[in-house]
């Protein structure tokens, strides 16, 4: 008999892990179908070209991260410590599959002239995390750092899209009532990002905090030190991303310094919740988005 299968089978009858069970029940309850989004109402053809390019470029990079998350989640099913974690990780696979499908369809709607290339700051972080062969490292890098970045970014992107929606509606009164058009499209995207996709990501981060916290209690201090050193390395890669995207963020009306600060602040909170002592310093880069965003097409100010 296969020892791994026997162990996974026997774990089904062990004392349930309550936190993972609760997250699994939430995941089953909150399943959604991207077919429900009225895709035929999404018309970006009259969106100002710089705004459309910035949105498409941002989507391309998120899309790359979602593909990595899907493949990593499939690995996490295999590496799960207990039955409830295995069940939850399985729901994360279908969540990420849905996200990949959603961003693929969105990119098709945005119809960039060429598929945007993925910036090296994003591949540096995502590829490094994805290359982790150690389950604890993969959990730390994917569930806390990459998923956390996605969760924070989606909330900020939704806020920016609502600002774009308002700006376009003011520029063209009545456009929000139209069945198609850039204003209704931006508002729809904002709603789906925050109500569905970001909610999934917050579950994935919560699972990472719980799972990593349990593993840390079983690890020797030398392994914990190695994980904390990895946080510093990945944290530096994470910090490089907002600066590289500053022009796009400014076009979308996203304040890069605030976004970078929120990403680091949220990550530090999740590290503490998992039981790691390492904390990343807040961003100090001389971002200029406040002024740039104020004059951008997507500005809400
Ligand atoms: Fe995702
Ligand atoms: Fe996720």
Walk me through this protein's architecture.
With 301 residues, this protein is mainly alpha-helical. It has a single domain (17-294), classed as Ribonucleotide Reductase, subunit A (Orthogonal Bundle), CATH 1.10.620.20. The protein is 73% helix and 0% strand. The chain has eleven helices and no strands. It has helices at residues 3-11, 18-29, 49-79, 83-110, 120-130, 135-171, 182-216, 221-244, 246-252, 256-274, 289-294. Helix 4 (83-110) runs antiparallel to helix 7 (182-216), helix 7 runs parallel beside helix 10 (256-274) and helix 8 (221-244) runs antiparallel to helix 10 (256-274). It is globular, with a radius of gyration of 20 Å. Mean pLDDT is 88; it is low at 288-301. Residues 69, 96, 147, 200-201, 204 line the site of one fe (ii) ion.
Fold blueprint:
Blueprint: H1 3-11, H2 18-29, H3 49-79, H4 83-110, H5 120-130, H6 135-171, H7 182-216, H8 221-244, H9 246-252, H10 256-274, H11 289-294
Helix pairs in contact: 2-4, 2-7, 3-4, 3-5, 3-6, 3-9, 4-7, 5-6, 5-8, 6-7, 6-8, 6-10, 7-10, 8-10
The structure holds fe (ii) ion (FE2) (2 copies).
β-strand number: 0
Give a quick account of the main beta sheet: strands, pairing sense, barrel closure: none
Please give the alpha-carbon distance between the first and last residues. 65 Å
> Which oligomerization state do the chains in this entry correspond to?
single chain
The topology string of helices and strands comes to HHHHHHHHHHH
CATH topology annotation: Ribonucleotide Reductase, subunit A
- Label the CATH architecture: Orthogonal Bundle
Strand residue percentage: under 5%
Q: What is the CA-atom radius of gyration, in angstroms?
A: 20 Å
- Poorly predicted ranges: 288-301
Bound molecules: fe (ii) ion
Helix residue percentage: over 70%
């Amino acid at each position: 008999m296969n020892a791994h299968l026997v162990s996974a089978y026997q774990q089904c009858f062990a004392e349930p892990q309550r936190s993972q069970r609760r997250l699994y029940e939430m995941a089953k309850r909150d399943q959604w179908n991207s077919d429900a989004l009225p895709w035929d109402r999404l018309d970006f053809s009259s969106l100002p070209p710089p705004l459309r390019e910035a949105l498409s470029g941002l989507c391309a990079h998120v899309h790359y991260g979602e593909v990595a998350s899907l493949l990593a989640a499939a690995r996490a099913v295999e590496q799960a410590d207990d039955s409830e974690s295995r069940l939850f990780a399985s729901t994360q696979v279908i969540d990420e599959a849905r996200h990949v499908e959603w961003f693929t369809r969105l990119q098709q709607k945005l119809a960039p002239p060429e598929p945007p290339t993925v910036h090296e700051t994003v591949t540096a972080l995502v590829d490094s995390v994805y290359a982790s062969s150690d389950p604890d490292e993969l959990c730390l890098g994917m569930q806390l750092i990459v998923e956390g970045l996605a969760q924070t970014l989606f909330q900020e992107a939704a806020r920016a899209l609502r600002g774009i929606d308002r700006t376009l509606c003011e520029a063209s009164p009545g456009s929000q009532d139209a069945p198609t058009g850039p204003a209704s499209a931006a508002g729809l995207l904002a709603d789906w990002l925050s109500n569905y996709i970001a909610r999934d990501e917050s579950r994935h981060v919560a699972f990472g905090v719980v799972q990593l916290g349990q593993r840390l209690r079983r690890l020797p201090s030398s392994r914990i030190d190695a994980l904390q050193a990895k946080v510093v390395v990945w944290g530096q890669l994470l910090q490089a991303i907002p600066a590289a995207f500053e022009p796009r963020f400014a076009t979308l009306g996203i304040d890069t310094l605030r976004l970078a600060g929120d990403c680091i602040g949220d990550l530090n909170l999740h590290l503490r919740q998992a039981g790691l002592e390492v904390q990343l310093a807040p961003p100090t880069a001389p971002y200029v988005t406040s002024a740039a965003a104020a004059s951008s097409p997507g500005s809400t100010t």
